[in-house]
Structures are given as structure tokens and as C-alpha cells.
Amino acid sequence: MEPIISIKSLSKSYASGFQALKNVSLDIKRGEIFALLGPNGAGKTTLISIVCGIVNPSGGDIKVAGHDIRRDYRATRNLIGLVPQELTTDAFETVWNTVSFSRGLFGKPANPKHIEQVLKDLSLWDKKDSQIITLSGGMKRRVMIAKALSHEPQILFLDEPTAGVDVVLRSDMWGLVERLRQSGVTIILTTHYIEEAENLADTVGVINKGELILVEEKASLMRKLGKKQLTLQLQKKLDALPPSLSAHNLTLGESGEELLYEYDTKGERTGITALLHDLAESGIRFRDLQTKQSSLEDIFVGLVGNGR
Questions:
Q1: Name one Pfam family in it (predicted).
Q2: Does residue 268 surpass a pLDDT of 90?
Q3: Which range, 150-154, 177-181, 268-272, has the best average confidence (pLDDT)?
Q4: Are residues 51 and 79 in the same domain?
Q5: Domain final residue pick, 156, 188, 223
Q6: What is the SS3 string spanning 50-115?
């Protein structure tokens, strides 16, 4: 199946000489939730802005549903809804009018039933006649999402959509995201809440210093990089690991009072049984053990922290 977004060798340099994107290539499947992760200044917003036609690329090609974003700008922009980081909307307009106006900007005929449904999905219906200026930050964020959905896009970009939003509103938003995905909308999101990406995304991309350093299906990524760590709290301090345990992937803690053992949860054998047997044979006793599963956040920090 042809990807709904295809990016080839994309680059962006500014007049100052700063290179925001470096030879980025990426395909996004129709109907998936794609999470783009990266530290501040990594290039996430620049990438989104180029695909949405807000920023001009320095090089490369982008197609949206088979349309070139420069030659077929109007066609591609009609397919896309964008929720930017910044809360920019007419402060003195009502919720209903500003969302309806956004639909008209895309040349769509009036559809009050669709606008009503969008506002209800976002728990904005009781605020439909309120001026934007009277709303809380979280409600204003919801209005931005409603505006992005007003023209029934096939692709929705969410750039840090839950920034400054409380837990209840965040949960409601992600419920809507899941319903949109089920209806066939492709979702591309950036977020600093990595647990959201872990819970929602089908595919994860990591960008750092303008380079896309990883793109992989989340399930595969967790299988490959997600490790489990067994920590053994020892009864007696060790100065060094005995040679009889050299066959195991063990690390002695700095205090000498714990052993750390990493293993692949998807492997045929974890090696734990053999490890415990060899510990007993070596006369090493432990008073407690704990396990910890690597999260997507651990993987992200490991990739970016290594300076890749």
C-alpha cells in the first residue's frame, strides 16, 4: 500500500546557516498513529511545518496521498489538519463561529451537524457560544483541535497537543485520537509525554539534531530494545565477581551489595535459572530481587543521550 506521506531526502537550512533538517526520509502508513519524538530543537516542528506547507524546504521531495506538496499545494493542504503548539485564534470570536470559519477557509460547504459532532467529541458543546478569551488554556487547546478537524482531514498533525493540559483533558483528547484512527484518519503527533507515545503509537520515529535516527514499529522496537533487568540485593558485600559467574551478563553495583542482570524477555531462555544455580554454587546469597522492564522512555533517552 502506498504511504499516505512520503518524505525523501528532506533538508532545511536557514539564512543564519543553521541546518534544522538533514536528509530526512520517512514513509507514514495510512491510518496509523505515528509518534515523532526528540528533544527541544531536534527538528520536529520544522518537519511538520514543511509537510503542512508553512515552511519551505531547502531540498528534497514530499508527497501527501500521491500529491506533491509544492505542485499540488491546495490538494495536499485540504487533506491535512494541523494543531500547532501555539494557541493562535481570534480571542473575541465564539467557539462555534471560529470552528465554522476554519471549515470555510478550505472551501468546504457549511455542515452544522459535523461541527456539532466535533464540539461534542471534544466536550466543547456547552461552550459553543462562549468567546475564546473566556476559556481556560485546556479548553483553548480543544478549540485548536476542533478547528483542525473542521474540514474533515484525512491526516491530523498534533504538535505537542497536551502541553499545559490537565490530566482529565489529556485523557479525553487521547480517547478522541483513538476514535479518529479507527475512522481511518492518520495521526502524526509530537509529545514530551513519552508514555503517551508508548500507549498510543503504532510507529515511533526519533529525531535528534535534525537527523532521523530511528523509525520502527513500536511493538518491534520494544521487542528489540526493550530489556528486562533483574536486580539481586546481596546478603554480603562483594569486592568483585567470581570467575564462576563470568558466563553471565552480570554487573556488580558500585556498592558491591547488588548484582544487575539484563535479559531479553522475548528470548527462548532468560538464563535466570542457570544464574541462580551458579550463584548458589558460588556461595552467594541474596536477600531480595526486583525486576524492571525498559520503557519507550528508557529507549529514547538511550538513543538521544548517546549523542546520536
A1: ABC_tran
A2: no
A3: 150-154
A4: yes
A5: 223
A6: HHCCCCCCCEEEEEECCEECCCCHHHHHHCEEEECCCCCCCCCCEHHHHHHHHHHHCCCCCCHHHH
